[in-house]
Amino acid sequence: MSIAEAGHTDAGARGGVRCTPRWLIAVLPLLLLVALILMRSYEVMSKSLAPGSDSTFIYQLRFFDAITLKAQPDVQPSLDVINAYVLVVVSTLALFSSVLLYLNGGARRPLRFFLLVGIGTLWLAADELMGGHETIAANLPFLADLPGIDHGDDAIMVIYAVVAIAIVFYFRDLLREATYALRLFAAAVLTTVVGSSLDVIRGQWLEEPVEVIASMLVLFGFAALMLHHLVRAGVVKRPQDA
User: Fold this and answer.
1) Rounded distance, CA 34 to CA 40, Å?
2) Domain residue limits, the chain
3) Nearest CA among 192, 186, 190, 184 for reference residue 221
4) pLDDT per position in the chain (242 positions), as tens?
5) Within a 10 A sphere around the Cβ of 54, how many other Cβ atoms?
6) pTM of the shown model
7) CB contact set of 15 (below 8 Å; sequence gap of 6+)
């Protein structure tokens, strides 16, 4: 590696790699906000069985009391479903990164980090879609009797949080060096706090869109973190060098 290349890599290691265009960070949450407003601005006019089916329904929806459309949803759109999709994408990125690092002989520490994150977020996505923590709590009723716990599934969420914090703390050096990703994660935390505040003041109509924006910021942050470490390992080129 030349001196110029070494300096270029060190600069990337110090400042992180910016992989997400600023316009996308601004536009995509707005599009999600519009989509969520549309999801809350319809009335179900009728429901009937689809032709040739005895279990699939077709819904006639009225938007803004002006537009009528037919829909055949397999899954009811909700914050849980959107978050599960985000978790699946993060899991895919993480596992893909760990495979690339392994095949290219990358450092073991980033490889282990992405592998753990990939497995963990895949588990959380399945939990989100299938109610895993509720099922576990229903079969372990003693969890509801633990100090400070009102519902058994709250104890499962505490365990998830402790595991996540432990992973973040153990691999904090990998996170700290990717400053652009950290900014996006910080924005996600701030957005989550805003969403929680809206819940307290009963602003439910804004709470879900804000939480979706927080999820997208986490996704963008993880993409930036992934690209930073892949660039540092020499697996991919920096965007401006490609």
Assistant:
1) 10
2) 3-40+78-130+177-232, 42-77
3) 184
4) 433 334 444 444 444 445 555 665 566 666 666 766 666 677 777 777 777 777 677 878 777 777 887 776 665 666 777 788 888 999 999 999 999 999 888 788 999 999 999 999 999 888 888 888 788 887 878 877 788 777 777 788 888 889 989 998 999 999 888 888 888 888 888 877 776 666 555 555 556 667 777 778 888 888 889 888 888 888 777 655 54
5) 6
6) 0.69
7) 179, 180
